Protein 1
Amino acid sequence: MTTVAPVRTGRDAPPRDRLAEPGAAPRPGRRGALVPALLLLLPVAAAAIAPGLVAPFDPFANSGPALTAPGWAHPFGTDDLGRDLLSGVVYGARTSLTVAALATLLACAIGTGIGMVAGYFGGLIDDALMRFTEFVQVVPRFFVALLVLTLFGPSAVTMALVLGLMSWPGLARLTRAETLSLRGREFVRAAEALGGSPAWILRRHLLPHVQRPVLAVAAPVATGAILTEAGLSYLGLSDPNAMSWGKLIQTGQAFYTHGWWLPLMPGAAIVVTCFGLALLVEGLRPRF
């Protein structure tokens, strides 16, 4: 006598991973990372956009006794010249985040363009662009930026350009992989059959599909730019007329035995910003 295997209904079928289904809602744990990310990044963004409204004092003016410990009058304390450290950190956010934003935008533009062209055309164009991408990827960007800033002088714009020109290879490889997966799709073939030019197809049909994963990777690029900018500023290669987090750490290290807060506060600002960007990526990952 043969037995018939029971047919599973939707009620007793094993659960499926909802993230594997198109349009599925993200997991609550990852979606919950957006809230702490915004709580960390919104104050930093406000300081970068409108430092004059957030900072209580002029960061370059004497506002109290030198080396005053953190308190009600000066929440982050004062430095060796009596300048309010909170105001310095707030104005430093504008410099550090401006460099990171410009470098990230430039890297996204270059990486997306090169990756889409390489993935769509393939062949010799793909090989040449990928070999060039690999060459740029192995060049240490910190030392390139160090050399350029030493030759041409410290400037926030120069620093952003160098970091942007050296940070795009990972974005190019990601964009190329996405373009390769889309190149044979029906909507691309239909656009080609209708006589659409490669530039029009890349801009109209492929760019909307590749920009979402690129945006998800942009936050780690910005994190790397913030850390590199801080390292270069620590070495004295930042704009001498502007505050930056790395410069504050550099000036505070000489007084850390008498003023532990001097290197701690700008360092904490860097950690909080980078951690907030990491949480932002984790929260947005299921949506991309």
Protein 2
Amino acid sequence: LQITDIASWGIHPGGPRILSAAAEAISLTDQQLEPSLGILQRCGNMSSPTVLFILQEHLRRQAAGPCVLLGFGPGLNVEMCLLR
């Protein structure tokens, strides 16, 4: 599985800088980050549940292909999940 095989990315939007850094690190476009950017704009950072709101948006859009969810927590705790 390659980065280019991932149809959708759900990255916990702790803030715009986190999304920008993640996008730069793995060469993602704003379109690929749209669910995360939209939730950040509409709801802000809601702590841990934020990534579940992003998942709900991914499911609502019925995006085809695998999705990666990335969650970030205090003390640089990072979780990642591949959904197919």
